[in-house]
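Holo prediction. Input below; ligand is adenosine-5'-diphosphate.
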Amino acid sequence: MQGPVSLRHALSRQWRAIRELHRVSPSFFPFLTLKCLVKALTPYLTVFFAAQVLKELATLRRPETLGFWALFSVLSLGLTSLGNAVFARHIETLTNDLWGRKGILFVQKMFALDFSEIDNPETRDLRTQIQQSESWSGWGLMRALEVYENGVTGVWGLLSGALLSIGLFTSTVPETSGAFQLLNHPVFVLVLAAVMVGMSVLAGKCSAAFTEQWSAVNAAATFGNRLFGHFGFIGMDEKRSVDIRMNHQQELIAAYWQTNTTFGAEGPVGQLARGKMGIEKSLSVCLTTLITGFLYVFTCLKAWGGAFDVGSITQYVGAATAMVNNIFALTDLVGTMRANSIYLDKTFAFLDLPEARDQGSLTLASEEMKHEVEFQDVSFHYPGSDVWALRHVTLTLPAGERIAIVGENGSGKTTFIKLLCRLYEPQEGRILLDGRDIRDYRYNAYMDLLSVVFQDFQLIAQPLGDNVAGSRSYDRKRVYDCLVKAGFGERLMQMKQGLDTVIYKELCEEGVDVSGGEAQKIAIARALYKDAPFIILDEPTAALDPIAEAEIYEKFNEMVGDKTAIYISHRLSSCKFCDTILVFDEGRVIQQGSHDALVHETQGKYYALWHAQAQYYTNE
Ligand code: ADP
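Structure of the complex:
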């Protein structure tokens, strides 16, 4: 169970949230501040001018003075209403814009994260929790806007109210008023002021306690929202929906759906609303009503005793009520800040996760294409798993060689590539580039050395050329050449808009769908366009038909040039032309050599794998 959040901690969290938001939208807070000032001033202007008109009506009734106050009243009200409307519209637009920018903050962070964090279930859970708290009821970064707005309006309103209601406490009833003179006594005035402030604070505290109760149901509400998000939209998920219909699982889904009682009358949220929360809210409303009652009685008694005229009653009651309301609002705000800081703690825990770009400082000469990589006794297991995915791997990848990696499923081939790509760090041993640990190099400089096509490569539903170049401005001739080299030339000719053709239909109706094999060729072209010293292909031809596969291998030497090429393949026939074949088994490299050498080691794994495949083709 979490202890109470200190006010200092709550304040510092909101302040950081405001700074983060200010960083992504610098014009937002100046506008919001202006809006708060105008908003806080509006009720006092009404009270002040109405009081002047009433005073004049109750005393001298001079038409020109009445006209003067009426004109000012209308003018000031008109201007503040106009100001409020203009600011409200502008702030609404800026807030929508800020939602988008805040989203980018998270997207940027996710891409900057150390990859092992993305793969870490705790990180993913943290991100989901933040997202769900935001969509549940706006807890987190954006709630800091409300805190700022209510804070500035509250302080400003409190000061203005104090200024306008000061006369209520300082003006005295005349000596002729008998018992009413008690109202002049400083002790009485002080006690009254203290009681009113105390009651406002208490009312605010009750309301704050009400708000803080939300954190008690946070876990249940987060889970409830997860269920809602999962089962509520499952019918729209193309793949799942087909499966559910075919297997008549609709009723099962409905039954799971009904287990989500979090927000129902008997659920934890409902119970809290009927219990503690209801009591706190009612108490807070009762107290504020009582304070307003006291204020009316005190003001009217003073006016009755002759301390001020009838016009001042409006001003003092209005101003003092507004002041009390602001004390209440500020105290209530403390509750909101405390509750929100629990969500902000999670937000900042995510935003403060280590970033890959923070690693390493060595740079590399960009024109240097020959680099040697060495694995020195490398062992690795995935976060949360105690099974070694790689064990004691020691080998050298000489510059300019063609290296094939083979082995059964789960033998560690992809993991080897992921470590080479610095997606994970080995728990034991070192990986060296030109004799230096790869972690010593600046992350981006190191990444510039690698062109990679993973098995589960992803293309973006945007123009073909952008996909290949990884940029919106690019060398069209070179992109075209790379696509042709990767075997996509013929298909490109059929595309009316050439490199500007949007691939996939997700974001564009005129988008063009490409097959798995075509997508793989685009991904290979992307790797070629990068023109990095290492080209790494993980199952580069898995989605290609045999003819396209043969084409790629024919062109492989031309495509790769003098780069170091590493590729994983299940089709051993495609490894024959490689300089070195590394045979992986249960995380270890158990054989290493050329095809001709390995195929003669009759006791070796390579021999068994080779003959298993040959057998398969012969049978067919
Ligand atoms: P291959 O590419 O040879 O099929 P992998 O490198 O993908 O093999 O996997 C090696 C081992 O690591 C396997 O036992 C696999 O189950 C495990 N593994 C792979 N990815 C993960 C992961 N993200 N988390 C935990 N274990 C994993």
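The beta strands are 373-380, 390-397, 402-407, 428-433, 436-437, 450-453, 534-538, 564-568, 580-585, 588-593. That is the main takeaway for now.
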